[in-house]
């Protein structure tokens, strides 16, 4: 066995053993200190509280194994750049682990989290982890110059958060990270970057030791304290491993090895933009959620995504070692897989963006209100409680330009239909609106009657300024009528059951 293989196996074994032994200890400490992820019946569907700081064990195993690289670097013929790589990566991983710990335990504001990640990214940039040029398959590389820092920060911070977003099913983030790490390890070997391969081996071993406890059914979650540093280390390894590599490898390997997290983030941005929702507000429509909705069990959904991740990594390696024809064929396969997957998963928001793009030719690109209503209909299908559904309706109504919604039951149906009065939050709100009265303003007022059980059971008064519609008002009225009618029927059925039981 070549000396390099011995070194890789030794480093991976060290991190594997440490992660395997330390993960149960971290889980017990998390239970004692109350660092648990509790189910909420909506986005968190596990059946009992689960420790959520497994990333501590992964980062500790990675750091200790990477520290052993100091010995490798000082041996005769050891990689010259090894120390310059592992020290900044370990320091950065520990900082983000601590940031994630605070976020898992108490919560951290998104802006604060982004600021810390940016500082860490700038530190890595200063340590030589830089994207200074972008490969051009049709010619020489494009030098970034002054844009090298922002592009590098965007890559490092973006990938750290991308892995965090995809951490939604047992074993998903850790498993995909392992697949990507192994791909980057082999790519580094192909390009003669043994120092990068050794650091990748340390991370791979830690992930392998952690996965038995994280795979479905999970006994511990990776948590922000794991997904943030692991995503950053992966992005940094991709940057360092691509330096001095061939143009095809620079273009393909980082993007394809990490394609699933990148795709999930891109779809989340498109989805929330089309639905007129804040980009940083979570939802239940990530790729893994859609696979579960299609009927796959969580375990099969994770295995499916593992397979896709392996396919992308193999294609990236084929591009790295094959001729130009292999690159174009591999990219065609990737585009077919992504296009077919997006269509199969029902991401109509992508089609909406395409329609808007071509119809407006980039002029005044803006999502239509009908898209927001379609997203609302999809959300309401997974929102059983009327209070939560009413909140979703109001949020969409404010984005469509409405200022007030007032639901009033008819006298005979007061016990079946809750009264609601909501108004768009604004600082200049008059006292009348605070007391549930409709203010006398010049806005247009709609009266939407709700009919069910053979009678008109309630009325919704909606107010909106006189301005052009970019949505079908009949569709908005239909959503309101359907939701209120459903609540009335459910309440009536519940009363009937109580009456039968009393009899």
Characterization of this structure:
About 5% of the residues have low confidence. This protein has 2 domains: 352 residues, no CATH class; 134 residues, Beta-Lactamase. It has 503 residues and is α+β, with helices and mostly antiparallel strands. Helix 2 packs parallel to helix 9 and helix 5 crosses helix 6.
| Cα radius of gyration in angstroms | 27 Å
Number of strands: 8
- How much of the sequence lies in strands comes to 5-15%
Q: Distance between the terminal alpha carbons, to the nearest Å?
A: 82 Å
Tags for this entry?
2 domains, 503 residues, single chain, two-stranded antiparallel sheet, four-stranded antiparallel β-sheet, 8 strands, alpha+beta, Beta-Lactamase
Overview in brief:
This protein is 64% helix and 7% strand. The chain has 503 residues and is of the alpha+beta class. It is elongated, with a radius of gyration of 27 Å.
Helix and strand arrangement:
Elements: H1 3-33, E1 36-37, E2 50-51, H2 55-67, H3 69-74, H4 82-105, H5 110-126, E3 133-134, E4 142-143, H6 148-165, H7 172-190, H8 194-214, H9 224-242, H10 247-257, H11 259-274, H12 287-293, H13 298-321, H14 324-344, H15 348-360, H16 369-380, H17 386-399, E5 404-409, E6 420-423, H18 431-434, E7 444-452, E8 455-464, H19 473-502
Antiparallel strand pairs: 1-2, 3-4, 5-6, 5-8, 7-8
Helix pairs in contact: 1-2, 1-8, 2-4, 2-8, 2-9, 4-5, 4-9, 5-6, 6-9, 6-11, 7-8, 7-9, 7-10, 7-13, 8-9, 9-10, 10-13, 11-15, 13-14, 16-17, 16-19, 17-19
């Amino acid at each position: 066995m070549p000396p390099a293989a011995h070194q890789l196996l030794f480093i991976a074994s060290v991190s594997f053993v440490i992660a395997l032994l330390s993960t149960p200890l971290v889980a017990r400490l998390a239970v004692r200190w109350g660092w648990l992820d509790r189910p909420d019946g909506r986005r968190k569907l596990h059946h009992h509280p689960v420790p959520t700081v497994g990333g501590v064990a992964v980062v500790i195993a990675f750091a200790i194994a990477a520290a052993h690289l100091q010995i490798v670097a000082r041996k005769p013929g050891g990689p010259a750049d090894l120390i310059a790589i592992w020290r900044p990566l370990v320091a950065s991983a520990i900082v983000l682990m601590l940031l994630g710990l605070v976020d898992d335990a108490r919560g951290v504001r998104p802006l604060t989290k982004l600021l810390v990640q940016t500082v860490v990214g700038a530190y890595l940039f200063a340590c030589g982890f830089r994207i200074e040029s972008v490969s051009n398959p049709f010619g020489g590389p494009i030098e970034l110059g002054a844009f090298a820092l922002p592009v590098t920060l965007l890559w490092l911070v973006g990938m750290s958060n991308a892995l965090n977003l995809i951490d939604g099913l047992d074993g998903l983030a850790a498993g995909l990270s392992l697949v990507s790490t192994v791909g980057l390890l082999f790519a580094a070997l192909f390009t003669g970057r043994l120092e990068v391969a050794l650091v990748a081996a340390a991370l791979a071993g830690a992930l392998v030791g952690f996965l038995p406890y994280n795979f479905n059914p999970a006994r511990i979650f990776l948590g922000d304290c794991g997904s943030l540093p692991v995503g950053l280390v992966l992005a940094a390894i991709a940057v360092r491993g691509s330096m001095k590599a061939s143009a095809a490898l620079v273009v393909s390997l980082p993007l394809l090895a990490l394609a699933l997290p990148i795709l999930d983030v891109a779809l989340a941005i498109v989805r929330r933009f089309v639905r007129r929702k804040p980009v940083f507000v979570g939802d239940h429509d990530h790729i893994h959620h859609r696979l579960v909705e299609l009927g796959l069990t969580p375990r099969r959904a994770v295995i499916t995504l593992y397979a896709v991740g392996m396919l992308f990594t193999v294609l990236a390696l084929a591009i790295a070692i094959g001729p130009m024809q292999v690159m174009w064929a591999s990219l065609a396969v990737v585009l077919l897989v992504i296009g077919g997957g997006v269509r199969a998963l029902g991401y109509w928001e992508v089609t909406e963006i395409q329609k808007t793009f071509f119809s407006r030719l980039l002029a005044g690109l803006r999502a239509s209100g009908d898209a927001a209503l379609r997203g609302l209909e999809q959300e309401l299908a997974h929102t059983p409680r009327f209070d939560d559904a009413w909140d979703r309706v109001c949020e969409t109504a404010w984005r469509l330009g409405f200022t007030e919604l007032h639901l009033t039951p008819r006298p005979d149906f007061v016990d079946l239909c809750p009264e609601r009065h909501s108004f768009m939050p604004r600082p200049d709100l008059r006292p009348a609106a605070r007391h549930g009265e409709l203010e006398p303003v010049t806005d247009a007022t709609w009266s939407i009657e709700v009919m069910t059980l053979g009678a008109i059971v309630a009325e919704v008064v909606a107010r909106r300024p006189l301005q052009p519609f970019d949505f079908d008002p009949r569709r908005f009225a239909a959503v309101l009528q359907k939701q209120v009618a459903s609540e009335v029927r459910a309440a009536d059925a519940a009363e009937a059951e109580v009456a039968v039981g009393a009899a």
